[in-house]
Amino acid sequence: MSMVLTTASVPDRDKVAYWNDAVSRTLVPMTVVPQGDGPFDGRITTDRLGYLRVSTMEADAKRISRTPTLIARSSEAYVAIGVQVSGPATFIQDGRRAEVGEGDLVVYDTTRPYFFDYPQRFSTHVFQLPRRVLGVPEADIRRVTGTAIGTTDGFGSMLVPFLATLAASAHAYTPAVADRLAGNVVDLFSTLVAERTNQVTLEADTARAHLVLQVRDHINRNLGDPDLSPESIAQALRISIRYLHRVFEGEGITVGRLIQHRRLEECGRELARRGRTVPTVSVVAQRWGFVNPAHFSRAFRAVYGVSPREWRSLRTVEAEGRPGPDPSAEARLPSADQR
User: Fold this and answer.
1) What are the chain's domains?
2) Rounded to whole angstroms, how far apart are CA atoms 78 and 53?
3) How would you class 310 by CB atoms within 10 Å of its CB: exposed for 0-12, middle for 13-18, buried for 19 or more?
4) Are 85 and 133 in contact (CB under 8 A)?
5) pLDDT for 3-51, tens place per residue?
6) Sign for the pseudo-dihedral over CA of 136, 142, 143, 147
7) What is the dihedral of CA 118, 154, 132, 285, to 10 degrees?
8) Is 132 helix (H, G, I), strand (E, B) or coil?
9) Which of 5, 78, 14 lies closest to 44, judged by CA?
10) What would the DSSP string read from start to end of 63-111?
């Protein structure tokens, strides 16, 4: 279900404060300064597709700034993709300035300061990807921030329409489809970065990206198989184990680590669900391919900072709105490069 926050029913004197809080909670902490004289009007709609957060924001003219102080308050690092639907914008990050027009795409990193100037009423889609799920070097991300990418700019001609369609229909997908789409956005973003940084030739990159998609799809479809491994994947895709590992050298994570990461991700998601019948921790672990309960518990704690049972209790407390400990474990999730 979409989360919708709007200033429509907020008293005029409180609209700006409400909007600052709304966008800071929905996106990342930031400062919003309206440019008009009248009462401020804004609306933001947000959906989640797995680990991908999709928001559509429509608001009056304003300036947005994200400072080092605000960055320090954030528990998660994101890379964001903005698609401008209507109205112009000026974006500044890493010393580069981009004039963003309708239909343009801009990439920015929430771990570094940035500034947006919207001189008139506007609408934009914002896609936020946790930095930890990307296999893209930070140096390459820096090369694409602060640059407007249009529908006539190479890979942007395919990516921009896809993202616009995804934002419009984000509320309609089942969890299984949503997870697949989130993975596809990660792969498409990686391809965009590869194209913009000229790391590889287009032909080689296309072949590698296609194989990476096949590997990720095979992993997602076989997570419950305890025998899933780099060797079984290579055999299923009729490639050598050496070539499989070489293809994943640029992903920032090994195939074995990716399998475990996805299994733990699905276990964490299922343990957080509420329902009349709640499966035991061991049942959840076995469902996603873990055969040794002790190994599962150690691996889960290493990533989430708490045991599986503590994770379930934390999420239950949050869902019921009861006071409980600060669920800061997610902030300790290591990046792909650290695992």
Assistant:
1) 3-172 (2.60.120.10), 202-338 (1.10.10.60)
2) 10
3) middle
4) no
5) 999 999 999 999 999 999 999 999 999 999 999 888 999 999 999 999 9
6) positive
7) 120
8) helix
9) 5
10) EEEE-HHHHHT-SS-EEEEEEEEES-EEEEETTEEEEE-TT-EEEEETT
